[in-house]
Write a structure and sequence with these properties.
The complex is a heterodimer of chains A (678) and B (141). Chain A is α/β, with parallel strands linked by helices. Chain A contains 19 helices and 34 strands. Classes of the chains: A alpha/beta (678), B alpha/beta (141).
Chain lengths: 678, 141
């Protein structure tokens, strides 16, 4: 079937024209089969450039368009929209790249021109077989699910709830607040962490639009953008939250103790416990693994003592299903356990603390009531703070954890402030990275308080004469140092949650090289993911301090709200399609599909694609032994045509001045010259 | 081997990683040998082995398949599927006289523009060493 193809070659100023003979390429394209108009222009993406295409589509009745310019990742959409404005289905356009992959990477102009010709020829070959495709609009459910109720999850939930949309907030621990609830002060303003986070925690519990579910986990997610079905597992709390008043009598009488996770192992909690007196919700939870009543059917003290009869040892796991339009992931981070770094002696020496343990020491409701004392009850006379423990280290995590420099400075100040200004504080750092608002000023302030900064990562920490000795090198002075101190704080890396792989699998989100959840684009899509309708908030995407996590969370909330407020979402039509006349029902594709988008129709004995769930990866089409599965816009005829175009004349091709070149047929209508002189 | 032999290389690259890396190599003006022609796929998982065979039979001296690093796939695990297919293809092709080295699978991440340029240049050199594909002249379709 004969086509009417228009070819548009862009000069991109001198970016392309500097190497590629654009006029020559346009002239060459004019001679290709079915090309009725071929033009070159300085800036195709500009308004006059797009107008030229639109005018030609109308004037010459073009049914296919090829634009040869920059990378399709940059301007494919622009030209698709231009075609759509002229009434041409946008998928009847092929955008090929003669800039990034040709003019900018090829040294020789003749070779660059030859390459550009092949690229254009392939696009012309390919576009001839393009088919009209139509995006589908699907409805978006108005509710949003937020997973994780740390500061990022809290912020995202409050933002969404404020707009009037319902939020289902799932938190796996017994109360909300995340790591921020463990802190005492925040840098650089030295705000009390509780004073800024607890009001937000209360706001979450009181907001009628937020359905807060603590001690719960997301078990399964099915569906697609706008229509997710989420199964949430509620772990048995053994305390009836509707009846419990939070009086705390049960906590005092419980005889069973366990190491407190919230206090980072620095204290004990009971078998029935809540994280802190400020916990939201303040309903306690019974640790079913150690409670004597549950494990051995003895004790039962809490039930006897509870004035409201809230204790129920027979509580079972329950499941609840939610239908939401989008999901915001705010699953947060873990801090690295420095035990494997034997040289720092964590776990061997009592006076070596991790940063999060040190936060708990500082916290007024922590194990020491906010006093900085060592495990022997003494105040330290000298403290060494070691930066980049597990960060910027090829053996552990290569990335910078972003927060350590600043919290180390905060510790410097707090030690001077709480223990006394005569306390010696030494910072072993690699680089100081004080990048935020007011951070550098805080660094200066701490320096002026008399804190010592030593550049160099210490080699080891040993114990000599009852003191810890930090052995290292001051790389600025070029001398070895052996520094006796009473206490060491390790600024441990922020790392992905231990169960991140499981989270990534459940929500269908990819993990980056470091294990954090992968955003759509590091610069221009930091909150969205490759899975439409699933957004990221906070440190699950990478290390973040509180201001960054909060802004990121608001960004995620805005994305989720944009979807919910519009009410519909258009789904890309470049999905797979299984021809029922060819499908033999072998079901290989069903197992291959990473998105469970292929169902098997038992009655007809064929596989069927659910277009709304299909992302268009083409795994099924790449395998299907009978050729029934095809991926739209990348089907085999189109790819074969492209291969033909790219290879068709490669052997023995010479530029026209040197050889015969491609036979150029002069079409009836060929306004190439005229266009070039516009 | 004739020194005038200039190989023709076809590359099937994934839109999210290697194609982006190719863009980055371009933006960073990393000069590459001009022998490579690229076909953009959405995922290496959609590279049907018949595209590779077709390319080899139609005049390509080497075929490069390149996608996201293992674990980084935009479509969860498409690159693993490509890895299996290329591995199997490399088992079969030598039986038809096509050397193993003519089909290569690599991982080039979106931020690795320099890696892309190096991969392309190395592969072109490897194929130049191998020489023109002689099996093609014997193939009857």
């Amino acid at each position: 079937m004969s086509r009417k193809i228009g070819v548009y070659v862009c000069h991109c100023g001198s970016n392309i024209a500097g190497k590629v003979d654009c006029g020559g390429v346009a002239e060459f394209a004019g001679g290709l089969k079915d090309v009725v108009v071929s033009r070159d222009y300085q800036f195709m993406c500009s308004d006059p450039g797009q107008e030229m295409i639109i005018k030609d589509i109308r004037q010459y009745g073009l049914d296919r368009v090829v634009v040869a310019s920059c990378s399709p990742r940059l301007h494919e959409k622009t030209f698709q929209q231009a075609c759509a404005r002229a009434g041409l289905n946008p998928y009847l356009m092929q955008h090929c790249c003669i800039r990034e992959h040709c003019s900018w990477t090829t040294a020789d102009p003749i070779e660059a021109t030859a390459k550009a010709r092949h690229i254009v020829e392939a696009a012309v070959e390919r576009v001839a077989d393009h088919q009209k495709l139509y995006s589908r609009e699907v409805e978006v459910l108005p509710d949003v699910m937020v997973v994780g109720a740390g500061i990022a999850g809290i912020q995202a939930s409050l933002d969404i709830a404020k707009s009037g949309h319902k939020v289902h907030l799932v938190e796996k621990s017994p109360s909300i607040g995340g790591h921020m609830a463990q802190f005492d002060k925040t840098f650089p303003t030295l705000d009390c962490a509780a004073c800024i986070s607890t009001p937000k925690m209360v706001a979450v519990s009181q907001e009628p639009n937020i359905n807060l579910m603590t001690w719960s986990e997301v078990e399964e997610v099915t569906g697609f953008v706008g229509n997710y079905t989420v199964t949430v597992k509620h772990k048995p709390r053994y305390v009836n939250a509707d009846v419990c008043t939070g009086c705390g009598a049960c906590l005092e009488k419980c005889p069973t103790k366990a190491i407190s996770e919230f206090n980072e192992g620095l204290g004990y909690r009971k078998a029935i416990y809540r994280n802190s007196p400020q916990a939201v919700p303040n309903t306690p939870v019974i640790d079913g693994t150690i409670c004597r009543k549950i494990t051995k059917d003895k004790c039962g003290v809490c039930q006897k003592i509870c004035p409201t009869g809230a204790i129920d040892y027979d509580m079972k796991e329950t499941r609840e299903v939610f239908h939401v339009g989008s999901i915001v992931l705010a699953t947060g981070y873990d801090t690295m356990d420095p035990t494997p770094m034997r040289e720092y002696g964590f776990g061997r020496y009592d006076e070596v603390y991790t940063a999060l343990q040190f936060e708990r020491l500082n916290n007024a409701v922590g194990p020491t009531g906010g006093k900085i004392v060592m495990k022997n009850g003494q105040k330290p006379e000298s403290v060494a703070i070691i930066h980049c423990v597990g960060s910027r280290d090829k053996n552990y995590h290569e990335y910078c954890s972003r927060t350590c420099c600043m919290y180390a400075l905060k510790y410097d100040h707090l030690i001077k402030d709480k223990v006394g200004h005569d306390t010696q504080v030494y910072n072993f750092y690699i680089d100081m990275r004080c990048f935020g608002k007011g951070y550098e000023e805080f660094y200066r302030r701490v320096q002026e308080e008399g804190v010592t900064f030593i550049r160099g990562r210490p080699a080891e920490i040993v114990r000599e004469d009852g003191k810890l000795v930090v052995v290292g090198e001051d790389t600025l002075l070029g001398v070895n140092v052996r520094l006796p101190v009473d206490m060491v704080v390790l600024c441990t890396a922020m790392e992905p949650r231990a169960d991140m792989t499981e989270v990534a699998r459940v929500f269908g989100v990819a993990q980056g090289q470091d294990g954090f959840l992968l955003e759509e684009h590091p610069k221009l899509g930091p909150v969205s993911t490759a899975t439409d309708g699933v957004f990221l908030a906070g440190a699950c995407q990478g290390p973040k301090d509180i201001p960054d996590a909060v802004s990121h969370a608001s960004g995620g909330a805005a994305q989720a709200l944009a979807l919910a407020a519009k009410g519909t979402v258009s789904i890309s039509p470049t999905t797979s399609w299984i021809n029922p006349d060819i499908c033999v029902g072998c079901r290989v594709c069903v197992g291959l599909c990473a998105y469970s988008a292929i169902e098997f129709d038992e009655r007809r004995n064929v596989a069927v694609i659910n277009e709304a769930m299909c992302k268009g990866c083409g795994s099924c089409a790449g395998y299907c032994p009978s050729g029934a599965a095809r991926i739209k816009h990348f089907n085999e005829t189109q790819i074969f045509n492209e291969i033909d175009g790219l290879l068709g004349m490669v052997p023995g091709w010479l530029p026209p001045e040197q050889g015969e070149g491609h036979p150029v047929e002069i079409p009836v209508e060929r306004p190439v010259e005229e266009a070039r002189h516009e | 081997m004739s020194s005038e032999f200039e190989p023709t290389i076809l590359a099937f690259v994934c839109n999210w990683c290697t194609f982006t890396a190719a863009d980055l190599a371009g933006t960073s003006r990393m000069i590459q040998q001009p022998n490579l022609r690229m076909v953009r796929m959405m995922c290496t998982g959609m590279v049907d082995p018949k595209y590779i065979v077709k390319s080899l039979l139609s005049g390509a001296d080497g075929v490069l398949v390149s996608g996201c690093h293992p674990g980084d796939c935009h479509y969860i695990n498409g690159n693993y599927k490509a890895r299996r297919r290329v591995k199997l293809l490399n088992e079969i092709l030598p039986q038809f006289g096509i050397e193993k080295g003519r089909v290569k699978l690599t991982w080039v991440g979106a931020s690795e523009g320099n890696e892309f340029a190096a991969t392309v240049n190395n592969f072109i050199n490897e194929i130049r060493e191998l020489g023109p594909m002689e099996a093609r002249s014997m193939a009857v379709i």
